[in-house]
Amino acid sequence: MIRVLLADDQSLVRAGFRALLDAQPDIEVAGEASDGEEALAEVRELRPDIVLMDIRMPLLDGLAATRRITEDDTLKDVKVVMLTTFELDEYVFEAIRSGASGFLVKDTEPEELLRAVRAVVDGDALLSPGVTRRLIAEFAARSKEPAAEGALAGLTEREREVMALVGIGLSNEEIARRLVVSPLTAKTHVSRTMVKLGARDRAQLVVLAYESGLVRPGWLG
Length: 221
Known about the structure:
Keywords: DNA-binding, Phosphoprotein, Transcription, Transcription regulation. This is Response regulator transcription factor. It holds the Pfam family GerE. It comes from Streptomyces doebereineriae. By secondary structure, this protein is α/β, with parallel strands linked by helices. Helices cover about 50% and strands about 15% of the residues. The protein has ten helices and five strands. It has a five-stranded parallel beta sheet, with helices on both faces.
C-alpha cells in the first residue's frame, strides 16, 4: 500500500486529491497538512511514502519543508513531490535542488497523478519526457558553472553514458532504445548509478549530471 501525505493550504485541493487517491486499491491518504510546519510534523509522525507538497503555504513554505525532510537522514525513504500551479514555476528548480523527486501541476489529469504517485515510489521518471526536457532546459539555463568531474570517478563508462542520457531527459525505455538494451537493463544501470552517487532519485541524478559537467546546456537532442 502506498501511503501519501497531502500538504496544501487549500482544503478543496486536499479533498479532491484525497477522493481520487483513496479510491485506488493500492494507495491510501495517511494524513493531511495545511501549512509547512504541520506537514513536517506529520511526516515525522506518519512516515508516508510520498508527500504531495504545495510550494506556497503559510508558516513554512513547501520549499523549506522539503529541504528539512530531505536533509533528515531518518526520513530518507520519504519522497517529496511538489505541487505547483504552473509547469515552470520559478521555485521548481530550487525544489529539485532541495531533494524533491519532481513536481506536478495541480490541474494534472487524474490518470497522470496516479501514474506519477506509483512511478515515484518505484524510482522511475516522474514526468513525461516532454515536460522533463522543458524542466531541464530551464534548470540548465539557471544552474551554476559545472563542478569538477571527480564525483563521477567511481562510475563505469556505461554508467556515465546512462547518466548523461538521464540528464537530457530520456526515459528508461528511450535509453534502452538508444543503447540497444532491454528496458530492465537500462533501469538497472540507472539504479546502480544512483546508488554509487548517493542520489535519492532520478531528479537528483539529473542535477548531478549538470553540476558535474557530464551534461551541459544545449545537449537536449
